[in-house]
Amino acid sequence: MAIIAALVVVVAASTLAASIIERQGLLANILITEGDRSQAALMLRGGLDWARFVLQMDARDNPTTRPDAIWARPVIGLPVGSADDPEYALFSGQIEDEQGKYNLRNLADNASINREEVLVLERLLGWLGFDASLASLIAQRVADAQFGKEGRAAAVGLRSLDDLRVVHGVTAQAIDALQPYLTVLPAVTKVNANTATPEVLGAVVDDLGLASARDLIVQRDKGLWFSNRADFVNRLRSQGADAGRRISVSSDWFRVTGEVTVGDTMAGLRALVHRSDSRLPTIRWATYQ
After folding, report:
1. 165 and 147 assigned to the same domain
2. Secondary structure class of 137 (helix, strand, coil)
3. 218 with 167, same domain?
4. 119/175 same-domain check
5. Is residue 147 part of a domain?
6. Domain co-membership, 107 together with 143
7. What is the Rg, in whole angstroms, of the alpha carbon atoms belonging to the chain?
8. Alpha-carbon torsion (232, 236, 242, 243), positive or negative
9. Closest to 141 measured CA to CA, from 174, 104, 178, 195
10. Is 7 exposed, middle or buried (0-12, 13-18, 19+ CB in 10 A)?
11. How far apart (Å, rounded) are the C-alpha atoms in residues 265 and 43?
12. Is residue 235 part of a domain?
């Protein structure tokens, strides 16, 4: 009996020891993961600050905002680890000009829908293969998020296209497809003719049409950038004097996205930054994932 009791004690002790070792290993892995996550977050913030600096330098050196500038060059798989193991941490990121897209904020002001802007969105949605009637529903959602005569908003504010999922007919797949063409910015903006797609450019210029917009973009992308609004209007030829009223050649709003991999941990960042003159751009919102 004594031998059996001793064996039981040995087995119990071994089981307890194994459990303790397993828990210690799990705790160690958790600590490593949390450490990597903290390191990744710091790297992402550093990447965001780098993006702000690049945009500031671009504003000082260039009167126009163009996709051939350094800000438009993505960073892919940049080693940012320690000197002993630089590949342990990799950074990727890019800056997007949000004024190359149609700003849904333009659809309403003080909770009142702008019907002319709804027509712009209808044209754009139609060319992209969507039901044009979505434009009125989206405009209503934008108006509901604004403060009107009653002094309060009827719905929560919009920060990104993801907030349109409550609109009937706007699916997650639709939002993904619309990302290159639409944006949500805090203020009314013009479209940058140097970074806009043919669909967006054709939609915001009355009577331009998609085919003519594509012809303009072909010439632009060969290096014939628009130097100012008058230059843009002159190239339209047959258009009226107010054809460039929704057009600019520089931008103030940019989206910064980044991703860092540290070991087996991956973290991401999305941020909206606002550039004013040659000062360091401000962060309007940032989301870490």
Report:
1. yes
2. helix
3. no
4. yes
5. yes
6. yes
7. 26
8. negative
9. 104
10. exposed
11. 13
12. yes
Residue 54 lies in a domain: yes
Burial class (CB in 10 A: 0-12, 13-18, 19+), 24: exposed
Q: How confident is the model at residue 239 (pLDDT cuts 50, 70, 90)?
A: low
0.70 exceeded by pTM: yes
**Separation CA 201–CA 102 (nearest Å):** 9
Is 168 part of any domain?
A: yes
Structural domains in the chain (count): 3
Which residues, in sequence order, are CB contacts of 247 under 8 Å at separation 6+? 190, 191, 192, 193, 204, 205, 229, 232, 233
Q: 65: domain range?
A: 40-101+252-289
Dump pLDDT digits (tens) for 200-223.
Answer: 999 999 989 999 999 999 999 999
**Are residues 173 and 107 part of one domain?**
yes
Sign of CA dihedral 42, 43, 49, 53: positive
* 134 Cα distance to chain centroid: 22
pLDDT digits (tens, 9 = 90+) for 60-76: 999 999 999 999 999 99
